[in-house]
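the two lines:
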Amino acid sequence: MKELKIFGIVAAFTLILYWGVEPFAHSQMHKHVEGDDLKYSDLKPLTVKGDAKRGESLAMACIGCHSIDVKNMPAPMDAVAAAQSFGVNPPDLSLAGKLLDEKFFAHFLLNPAEVTKSKHFAMPPSASSEQDAADIVAYFKSIAPKEVTPKEGYVFACGRCHANRYDKWTQIGDVPKTKSNIKTGVDLDALEFKKKLGTYQNKLADYMGKLPPDLSIIYRARSEHFLETFIEDPQSQLPGTAMPRVGLNHEGLEKVMAYLESTGDPSKPKREAIGPKVLGFFVIFAFLAFLWKKSIWKGHH
Amino acid sequence: MAHFDENARPFSHQWLNERLAIDTLKRVLSTEYWIPKNINFLWAMGMVLAATFGLLLVSGIFLLMYYQPNTELAFDSVNYTIMTEVGYGWLWRHIHGVGASVVFLVIYIHMFTGIYYGSYKRGRELIWLSGMLLFVTFSAEAFSGYMLPWGQMSYWAGMVITNLFSGGSLHADALVEWIRGDYVPGQAFLNRFFMLHVLLLPLVIIGLIVLHFGTLRIPHVNNQEGEELDFEKEAALYKEGKIRESKVIPFNPVFLSKDVFVLGIYFIFFFYLVFYHFEFAMDPVNFDPADPLKTPPHIYPEWYFLWSYEILRPFPTDPGLVAFGIAQVIFFLLPFLDKSPNVAPAHKRGLFKYWFWALLIDMIVLTFMGKLPPEGIWSVIGLIAAIFFFVLWIALPIITKKEKKL
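prediction for all of em together
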């Protein structure tokens, strides 16, 4: 039928056009980086087995800077004071054993700057032998909670450098709920918090070279593949970037990506719920319109 | 003085007819508005465009209720308030974004249909010209709308396009500043493009749509063979009941029933894009907030401007601007550059057939090159395609003059 042939030509040109300006153009514009499936192949496999018991006593050195919430061990300084000393607030270590790759974690303890590929990494080498490192890793694996939410994963891995304003997350924690004075409209607690955050951000920007970007909607601004390979090894996508390699394992990456998706593309579940109904409506609409057209055109040809 | 029956009930048929001539209106605009029978689904593209414009208008009104035209707030009002806090805000936004892209696809199909069937000739020149005015106004509407989310691509596209008004070595920087209301795009710039996008340009578009319909009424729609019909004779045949012999059909309900069916198919495609494939219409770069200190590595317009962007880009600044200027208006001249007396589909018109497909393919090549980084082989292909574009338009009067009368 002639109309179908014409439709075929229009559809073919439309698809060629789409291919050229979308998949093809983007493949030429961005260099393709192959991920390593979080194997961290540049690091040697561990030759020793860790002993959590020994690790526990070694790990007591960590709380000189870090907190371990699951063990009710607080950090010696608050976030702002820590940033003033180190440039950034050291993470709480409760989830370290759960979300970090085991091999990466052990090598990281031996030589943080080299393993993170970040020249001025604040943390000094913190294990004197591979055995010590493996023991500490084993300890943190033994104390990790069973379940982790995507936000907890994000806070641990990204949240001390990257805010997420669409989830009211700042580098020093959630934006607190405060009340303003009803007579003046002045909210002193909010101002106090802003000042603390500002102090922290200034220190962080000095440490990193600039303030790391807010990640509220990064999920729409970069492709999923870019984010995954970038988190796995920042230097592969942005050579020279100050961002350290954080060494997440599959679970850690999954949590971070789930969180980024929830703030960057919150309508996904709603789209998936309504989409089939709307399309179904128009399929029925088109079918009824076809019957109407057929009955109206009867006798015309 | 018209006759008004004092006994007519208010708002009854007779009462309305005496005041509004509704019977006449209905006849002239609908039941006896004659359309050729020999047409295909491409003749429904006007209705598809009207429906898409309707979707853009309605979704735009909903977005307008929450959008903040302020450089500090615009980005988050779109990406957070509308996408998260407003009920179905994400749906309105995706309809608006996808609609803005798809409307150009249909405009191009509509234009190339007109070119293929010679629907800009012999009495139909004003249809073509008013349509071209609509195309230009839609382009301005799309560009001004693209500024509003105030992302990186909004900002830098705004910078690049307003810079064109400096006229290359004319250095009309004062004009550029006047357009921006500032040295660089900022609050004044955002406010005026907001005004253009939500008020002035939509008003112009609505006026032009009315004009476009008006220009269509007397010459009537073209048909698949370019046959010149005696509409009065054919209409008389139809009204006698010889609907099989007559070469025309009434707009309502016969043509309309086909339009509605095509609309149904179109809406399946459109809402498939809205729900499952909207990324193509919303460039990732624009999800980074505008940053005047950081130029994105690749700046490119939306796909529907790429062919004319690529006519600007491969040449040195001044000739590039002249070429770009000509490319913007050359389609207006089509009815006057086509010297052939034939109103017929391209496949019956000798060399014009090859001209048509060459133009279409050249514009697709330009579109591809307009997005690719201007390096190596891509810029060579772009330059050749841009020169070929002008060769085609210079050749048009020559080859159509030689065309034999059918």
